Amino acid sequence: MVDSRTVSDLRLPDDLERVLGGASTSRPKDLSVACYTFPHYHRSALNDDLYGPGWTEFVLSRSARPRFEGHYQPRVPLLGELDERDPATWTQYNKLLQAVGVDTLIWDWYWYDGKPALHEALEEGYLRSQHQGRFAVMWTNAVWPIFMTTRHVDDTSAWPFAFASPDTPEETWRSLSYMVARYMHLPNYMRMPNGDPFLVIYDTVRMEVALGASGVREFFDELRAFARKLGHTGLHIHACQGIVARLGGFQTFDHLDQMGYDSYGLYNPIVIAGMERPEEEGGVLDYGLLAADTVSKIWPTLDERSPLPFLPAVSPGWDNSPRFPQYDPSRRKAGGLIAVDETPAAFESLLRGALAFLNERPSYPPIVLIGCLNEWTEAACLLPDTKFGYGMLEAVGKAVGADAKPWLTLAGTPGVEPEIWPGPLPEDD
Hints:
CATH superfamily: Glycosidases
CATH class: Alpha Beta
Helix content: 25-40%
CATH architecture: Alpha-Beta Barrel
Radius of gyration: 21 Å
Number of domains: 1
Largest sheet: 10 strands, mixed
CATH topology: TIM Barrel
Structural class: alpha/beta
Number of helices: 14
Distance between the termini: 67 Å
Strand content: 15-25%
C-alpha cells in the first residue's frame, strides 16, 4: 500500500518545480505516448441483448447531473456523440491524436460467453479508418455489469452482473490466443524495440486468483511459445493495475516478475491517488492535488515494489458518478470519489512529471500511458468536450513537444490559424 501518512498540499501546475526537484521534463528519446480506449460508445451485439437495439453508454453520460455546487456534469462531447463503429469517426480521432503526438491506442478488449465482445469499434471502425497510428490490445478480464444501476424496493442499489470474466484456464487460453492470432501480425500493431508485440493484462489479481502465481507463469510461457509459432519474437506483457489491485494493497506488484510480466503500471492514477488520501478529507478532491500526489508519491512508491520497469500513466480526470444514481461522498469507491477542478494546465504538468520520471530512469522503456481517450462516464477523456474544447489534447502536444493545434487538423487548413474575434461581436445593422 502507498504510504499516505504524510499529506501534502502541493498542487499542479503551480508547484511543478517543487514536485520535480529539478528533474528534466525534456522529451525522452524514442518516446511513445499510448492511450487506453474504452469501446462502449457504439452499437454492439452485447448491449443490444442487454438493453435493446442501439444502446450505448452515452445514455448515462448525457443523463448525468451535478451532485453538488460546482460539480461539472454532464460531460458533453464537443464533436457530438459519434458512432465509434464508423470508420469516419476514427479517421477524425486519428488525425487529432497524431497532431499532438499520441502514437498508439491501447484497446480494452473483452471476451464473454465464449466469444469477443464490444469489439465492433475496433474491427469495423478503427481498423477500417484512415490515418491510423499504432494500436495494441488489453485483455480486460473484468466482470461485466448491467450499467443501469437498479434501485431496489429496500432503497438499496447495485450493479447486477451480466457476465463473468473469462477466468477458467480454457476461456483464458481461448481469449488470449485469439488476440495474439487476430491482431499481432498487423503491420501497425505496437511492438517493443526488440520486436515483441505489446500485450496488456488488466486485472492481474483476478488472473492470479484464477490460475495461481505459478499457473500464470506457465500460461505466459505457453502463450509466448504460441506467439513464436506465429512468427513473433515473443511477447512483452504489461500488467495494468487499477482499483482492485489497490484494494488488495498492491500485493501482486511484489511478484509480477516471477509470474512472467515484463513491465507494470496503472490505468488511472488520479483515482488511486484519491483513494490514498485520508478519509476525513471526504470524497471530493482537487485534481491538481491528486496530480501532485501521483508524481511525488504514487509513482515513486509503486516503482519500488518490483524490479520490473514501472511505466507512468496519466489521466485528464476522474468522476464516475454518472454510473451511480446514489452518491455518497464519504465513500472512495463505487462512485464516491470525484476529482474536481481539473484543467489542461494541470494535466500538462502531470504529463511533464511523467517525462521527468522516465528521464530519471533511462533503462525503462520510454512509454507514457494515458487513461483514457473516451471514458465519458469516468470523466477521463482526452477527446474534446464542451468545457475545455481541445484543451486536453493541446496539453499533450505541449508536454511532449508536438505543440500542434489539434482543431486545425479537422479544419482542412493545417498551419493556418483561424480568425479569432478579439472582442464583442458587432451589432447587426
